[in-house]
Amino acid sequence: MDIADYYDISIPEIISGERKSEMMNEEERKIAKTMADYATTEKEKIFKEMKLQSVMGVCALVLYWILHETGAYMYNDVLGKLASYCETLVSVSVIMMAAFTTGSLSKVRSKSRKVFVFENFPKTMQFVVTAVVAFGVAAVIKLVLVYFFGL
């Protein structure tokens, strides 16, 4: 959009590579600004979700390291389960960040919303359901890796 303003040409002229008119009309300017605003909003939304996943993953990793390095997880059953939970959360965070950056999560969300009417749930409930599903998938992946590969 800045290029279009700077050279006083329309977006279609930039894309096609040829100049058709001398002035960008107001309607084209509004459309280009709307497109730019939408792209910025989408980037900010993805960045916010990535930041949340990163912070959760780092916190889980630090807690896991503390429990593992001190050996506290071996002496207490609750701490052992917490260490396992944190280990799984680290894996889930990495998977979720990959899903956010590739856009595959938004495709899955749109399909699940059509099937389960997911958008009718409160935002908190959506987060809880997403987290439970993510933990379930991570647990299955972990079991497969342990069972088949001994990792």
Q: What is the alpha-carbon Rg in Å?
A: 23 Å
Largest sheet: none
* β-strand number: 0
Tell me the distance between the termini.
51 Å
Count the DSSP helices: 7
Contiguous runs where pLDDT drops below 50 for at least 5 residues: none
Shape, principal axes of CA atoms: elongated
Helix content: over 70%
Instruction: Provide the residue-averaged pLDDT.
Output: 76
Coarse structural class: mainly alpha
**Strand composition percent:** under 5%
Order of helices and strands: HHHHHHH
General description of the model:
By secondary structure, this protein is an all-alpha fold. It contains seven helices and no strands. The chain is elongated and about 70 Å long. It starts with a helix and ends with a helix. The mean pLDDT is about 75.
Q: In a few lines, what is going on in this structure?
A:
With 151 residues, the protein is mainly alpha-helical.
List keywords for this structure.
151 residues; mainly alpha; 7 helices; 84% helix; 0% strand
What's the helix and strand layout?
Blueprint: H1 2-7, H2 11-16, H3 26-70, H4 72-75, H5 77-102, H6 104-116, H7 123-149
Helix pairs in contact: 3-5, 5-7
